[in-house]
Amino acid sequence: MHRIRFKDRDVLRIGEDPGDLYWLPNSSGGLIIQWIAADSLEQLLEFGRFVAEQDSWTEELDIEVVSTSWRLMDSCGFDDDEQPKVDLVLERGLYRVSATYQQNDSTMATVYQLKHQA
């Protein structure tokens, strides 16, 4: 995971490999799920929620949000390219980004938790 500036925007680059990204907001931030393998979107989202509940992260990064306009990207690209991106507005403050890769018999995903530190 890397925080970078790209074309006057704060970007959280969450990986080297391309993959569809899904943003599930919640009251303290949200989950980012990068789809590697799953039979359906519903299966992927259920798996991502389960992984987050286990609270067993392999990587963590603290970031300070000063500019509230952020972009999540799977890798660094261009504004008009086809790489997965999620634009979101975050409340200012300190956030912890936690990440883990997990798999079971039918689903593989990298799950990220973006959590506002009160």
How are the SSEs ordered, and which strands pair?
Blueprint: E1 2-5, E2 10-13, E3 21-26, E4 29-37, H1 41-54, E5 59-65, E6 69-73, E7 85-89, E8 93-103, E9 108-116
Parallel strand pairs: 2-6
Antiparallel strand pairs: 1-2, 3-4, 4-9, 5-8, 6-7, 8-9
Explain how this protein is built.
- The chain is mainly beta and 118 residues long.
- The chain has one domain (2-116).
- It is 12% helix and 51% strand.
- It contains one helix and nine strands; from the N terminus they run E-E-E-E-H-E-E-E-E-E.
- The protein has one helix at residues 41-54; strands spanning 2-5, 10-13, 21-26, 29-37, 59-65, 69-73, 85-89, 93-103, 108-116.
- The longest helix is centred in the middle third of the chain and has 14 residues, at 41-54.
- The model has no long low-confidence stretch (mean pLDDT 81).
Number of domains: 1
What is the structural class?
A: mainly beta
Q: Roughly how much helix do the residues carry, as a percent range?
A: 10-25%
Distance between the termini: 22 Å
Q: How are the strands of the biggest sheet laid out side by side? A: 3-4-9-8-5
The residue-averaged pLDDT reads: 81
- Please tell me how large the radius of gyration is: 14 Å
Task: Tell me the fraction of residues in β-strands, as a range.
Answer: over 45%
Q: Which stretches are poorly predicted, pLDDT < 50 over at least 5 residues?
A: none
- Report the strand count: 9
The general outline is globular
Which series of helices and strands comes N to C? EEEEHEEEEE
Count of DSSP H/I helices: 1
Tell me the major beta sheet.
Answer: 5 strands, antiparallel
